[in-house]
Request: fold
Amino acid sequence: MLTPSITRYGVSLKPVSPADLPALRRWRNSDEVRLNMLSQTLISPSQQRQWYERISNDESQCHWCAYVNNVRTGYANLKGFAQAPLSAQHTADSGLYLGQSSVRHGLLAAAVALCQLDVAFEQFKIGQIQTQVKRDNNSAIKLNQMLGYQPQTNENYWVTLTLTAPSYIRARQNLMRFFRHV
Reply:
């Protein structure tokens, strides 16, 4: 199965398309996003295109653009650790970032993450998700802990957090009060 679309929590995640690449590159190269990434190098247009060609038919990962009211506003991904479809993997890595847009709001990162994790646990039946967050990125650590992630390791500048389906389901129940109207 290639990248599925999902609409929940007032957000739509749609597979990344060539039309998304300029916005993704602009957001990824912004200091706000880039300085919180494992690789902090600037991405050229040709590197962005090569990345897209590499991930387009790779069933071990999914890449989405997030939309609110048809306005592109963010990016999310799930990546397996083996060269096998995501549905055949026990553990996957997750990531997301938000871009500057007219629809950005305080709960947007949570809404994008909820969609991403619903796909991971409901559609792909992944057993565990992990993510790495820069140790001083307190808002990302807090968001991940609200989603049910547990810190596992704290090496150098990074914290590794892991999430299981039962922990996520409990945490999602607590967050649903913020999304009842959408």
In short: The chain has a mean pLDDT of 91. The radius of gyration is 15 Å.
